[in-house]
Amino acid sequence: xxxxxxxxxxxxxxxxxxxxxxxxxxxxxxxxxxxxxxxxxxxxxxxxxxxxxxxxxxxxxxxxxxxxxxxxxxxxxxxxxxxxxxxxxxxxxxxxxxxxxxxxxxxxxxxxxxxxxxxxxxxxxxxxxxxxxxxxxxxxxxxxxxxxxxxxxxxxxxxxxxxxxxxxxxxxxxxxxxxxxxxxxxxxxxxxxxxxxxxxxxxxxxxxxxxxxxxxxxxxxxxxxxxxxxxxxxxxxxxxxxxxxxxxxxxxxxxxxxxxxxxxxxxxxxxxxxxxxxxxxxxxxxxxxxxxxxxxxxxxxxxxxxxxxxxxxxxxxxxxxxxxxxxxxxxx
Length: 332
What we know:
Elements: E1 2-3, H1 13-17, H2 21-38, E2 42-43, H3 63-66, E3 70-73, H4 78-85, E4 98-105, H5 111-119, E5 125-131, H6 133-138, E6 140-142, H7 148-163, E7 170-175, H8 185-196, E8 202-207, H9 222-230, E9 236-239, E10 260-266, H10 276-290, E11 295-300, H11 309-326
Parallel strand pairs: 1-11, 2-5, 4-6, 5-7, 7-8, 8-9, 9-10, 10-11
Antiparallel strand pairs: 3-4
Helix pairs in contact: 7-8, 10-11
């Protein structure tokens, strides 16, 4: 099994004061080298391509996409905010990510440009991450389509056209809202699968229960999501377990055989760095329930962006050492 990260990495402090293209390049190179030195098998750009100095408290999971698409307004009146607050399930946000006022188009979104910069800085196996159409549709106030399914499919069309051009070894779609809303399955699946079917490399889907201000924002159970998971056109899933515990693992005996499991063994909401022995035990326990062949990757619960760099780096080293210890490669 391979090690990977979910996506984000803590923003280097010096990038906040100088976000020029040259400085961004240097920051991404540092993040890639840090992962390589830790021994991570499949690395990412730390999602620094999305960094916005005007909003350093976020990692751009939502805003980076919607602000560049056509048909979405990102300036709001008091009436706009009142309508947003009437929506259910979004009380963790103070404002909508945007208001859909016309047909959604790609605008100036250029994910290939982001990928090309990162690809030029590493020879390692590279994963490219992208927020999915369900998540984006759920955080927008829709005044044009008036239908979640239509809005999600419009967003999916934009994302698919972007991702079809990206030759990353792994492309991961991030969906952090579906975990609390399995009832959205009927309209979420067609949109997400439309994106997945356009991916050239290995298709991954990351699902967690939220990481907003270091807090979980969704509630639910993996059992309720299993029909949705089995309907995904994915090669493997990247799922949250470490924070929640592993009591739900038996549910995944019924996961479609064609879909591999990514097992999280690192809690990113806790500053304590896990020991390699703990990581190895978590992998061994999961393998005893599901079989080692079902576990394609081990990784953290979610992105590292809210941790200190020293903590994130220590957790990555522990992840690799724990995997190696489990596989018997550790030399005492």
